[in-house]
Design brief:
Layout: E1 5-10, H1 17-27, E2 33-39, E3 43-46, E4 53-56, E5 58-59, E6 68-71, H2 77-80, H3 84-94, E7 99-103, H4 106-112, E8 120-121, H5 128-132, E9 137-138, E10 143-146, E11 151-154, H6 159-171, H7 174-183, H8 202-215
Length: about 220
Amino acid sequence: MTTTTHVAIPLFPRFTALDAIGPYEVLQRIPTIDVTFVGHERGEVRSENGMLGITIDATFDELAKPDIVVFPGGVGTRVLVHDERVLAWVRAAHESTIFTTSVCTGSLVLGAAGLLNGLTATTHWACYGELEATGAVPTAQRVVEHLDRRLITAAGVSSGIDMALRLVELLVDRTAAEAAQLMIEYDPQPPFDCGALAKCDEVVVQRVAEYAKLRK
């Protein structure tokens, strides 16, 4: 008999779409993995720019003990770090998860729940200070694993795809992870080599700041 692995991806107002959808696209390719979007209440929730809506299919109470947590980031995490219902759910879920993971500023929520105290962790490069304030030790590593603690954090946005592939390897095997990678044809060949802060000049960083300010 094949056992199903239940993955919970929390959604909330002003989440970053790819933080959630990137891991979803990888994980849902595996027949033994079931993905559910969870939140405070069932119904549609919209991404940080308001342009995309995704449906929450279960409340936190309805999926209190998932096998895997993938906590996405987004502007909305700044509210969640003070939301005791969310933090209590994260703590309780982590007691029995196979892995508790995050993408981008989802690590701020894991940190606020007390899961990252003294541990290296990652988030979007612009948010290292906020992550450090939760007790974690920020690092620029794209995916940070503490397998003995059942914790994995991924850096900004697109890194959630990398993290999800690693999760498939851990949950199933390497061939399954490679099959998922091939199914989504994840073979990055960007036209620019500017995907990390260390690779960019100040002009690009300034443009990022300008765009972020306009989107607030």
